[in-house]
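pasting for the record
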Amino acid sequence: MTGIDALPPLREVIAMHGLSARKALGQNFLLDLNLTAKIARQAGDLTACDVLEIGPGPGGLTRGLLAQGARRVLAVEKDARCLPALAEIAEAYPGRLEVLNADALEIDPLAHLSPPIRIVANLPYNVGTELLVRWLTPETWPPVWDSLTLMFQREVAERIVAQPGTKAYGRLAILAQWRAEARIVMSLPPGAFTPPPKVSSAVVHLTALPEPRYAADPKVLERVVAMAFNQRRKMLRAALKGLAPDIEDRLRACGIASTDRAETVGLEAFCALARTFQKT
């Protein structure tokens, strides 16, 4: 017994199926099933939810989610080597695990799930940020998911929850905090993984808000924020001069000094600035 189910320990599963982690796929496996169960618990009560997991690998977190009572788990795995191990988990939890052998960037896995939906994943390092941005920028809001419980490199996690005036504050913080509550709920050292990555990791929990915190057109806000932070060392009057000839007047009208830099401007002010472009 492993403590959470009757399946073999993950080290045995990896050895049995020859599942050495591949750097090209951004793989770092969590082998401690008590730890994967703890991550699953950060997503809350899953008994009435469908759960999407990206990059399950040998299935450590998958087992944690199922053991915590997830109604159904859809696991999207690009690496076909992992499929036999995941099939063994599906057999142990009849009717509750579906595995898609696919690239998460090329499919819409949410179409395979029924609400309420939560997303829980130890995201592959090479696609984590791109997937997060996609989940935060659907065409309609609120999204089909209720919450995201995601593991990232510690540096990325800190960018998601960063506040104005800090080095980590930028586009990702605004994107996440505009439409969601975001907080770091766990930290993990490199030694928790096989192979150990060079950096620490952290789990971020994001809960979708019913509506954005402040009114703004998503595409306009994204454009303003992208331009502001693409040249974050410049004063905003210079970084945003390509948006409008009267950019200094617009900044002033929103309570932003033209000499401010992007990292000092809060979410509410960026939304106010975006609204000035919606009127033209």
